[in-house]
Amino acid sequence: MSRESVEGAEGTERRDPVWDVVVVGAGPAGASAAYAAAVTGRRVLLLEKAELPRYKTCGGGIIGPSRDALPPGFELPLRDRVYAVTFSLDGRFARTRRSRNMLFGLVNRPEFDQALVESAQKAGAELWTGVTVTRVEQHGPAVPDRRTVAVVLADGRTVLARAVVGADGSASRIGAHVGVKVDQVDLGLEAEIPVPPSVAEDWAGRVLIDWGPLPGSYGWVFPKGDTLTVGVISARGEGAATKRYLEDFIARLGLAGFEPEISSGHLTRCRSADSPLSRGRVLVCGDAAGLLEPWTREGISFALRSGRLAGEWAVRVAEAHDAVDARRQALNYAFAVKSGLGVEMGVGSRMHAVFARRPKLLHAVLTGFRPAWNAFARITRGTTTLGELVRTHPLAQRALERLDR
Hints:
Layout: H1 3-15, E1 18-24, H2 28-38, E2 44-48, E3 61-62, H3 64-68, E4 78-82, E5 84-89, E6 92-98, E7 104-107, H4 109-122, E8 126-129, E9 133-137, E10 149-153, E11 158-166, H5 173-178, E12 182-194, H6 197-203, E13 206-211, E14 218-224, E15 227-235, H7 239-252, E16 262-271, E17 278-279, E18 282-284, H8 300-319, H9 323-357, H10 359-368, H11 370-381, H12 386-392, H13 394-404
Parallel strand pairs: 1-2, 1-11, 2-8, 5-13, 11-18
Antiparallel strand pairs: 3-7, 4-7, 5-6, 9-10, 10-11, 12-15, 12-16, 13-14, 14-15, 17-18
Helix pairs in contact: 2-4, 2-8, 8-9, 9-10, 9-12, 10-11, 12-13
């Protein structure tokens, strides 16, 4: 935390030691939660262990649901706009499908996350960076009353809140406090590769999705001006094979001669259907809650949408005068998440299982069956979701049921 932040924080604590809402983690989920709570006029504190802007392993694809969940007037710092997708099956049978309308946009996460945090600050949230949260306590000597949660920091200080939102990533300490359970854990590896203008021009406006050699794996190339974000993802436990896939993928693309500016890895975790989303006055959202689409592992839209819901319901939890009312509001938050994002995750989990068994079939359908491509385009633009598509289209529902068997 900067000196200015410390002095401001200490001054604030002397005026009123209890915040209405404290949000832990300043990624898309946390910034979205802080914004949603702050626009109601409540006192909101956003805690981030890193200094901003900071890098995050992520393709940076902004699909329609992500765009629609952004704060009003938010200007996306797009590095490219995607109008074409090349699909390949472990480097073979490549086919490019194109669209007259933009499918989705691409951002660099440091810029995107920083802009989201600034929106939360403009709404009234206070930001402390360089702050590590070690635990939260809802009982004990650090907690002055039953309406308060103690957020304990690594430097020994304690921050008090009426409600806490955990948005501290897939290795979340707040998630551990809540008791989040996961069904699916995957390893993503990524390289940010600067390329010359001739190579960048070839990729402009087009992404590559490669269905990989490992069950449930795939790779991607996302162009962002003079840099290509190249990555792969597969099930945890296949670390060596996943690394080989990335190396082979980069070599196959003719990019092995370019030195990556950043090479990184990240674990993604998908929640179990019965996993809790709250405990007492503490809510979790985004990666901390295991909320992401199990097939594509798309997480930004899930982070933004669950973060907004968490911020809105955290305000209600903060206003609750007893444990019963706080529990009621937390359950309402869980219902809102499960009835929307939970449905999408359920369909995504089924799609992941089908894809892991039959990637060739999926590739053939997406590249050779126009209604499937149209559905893909509608999902990325945000005019429908995977869950809504299966629920409202009998053909899609029957096809998925048949593939499930």
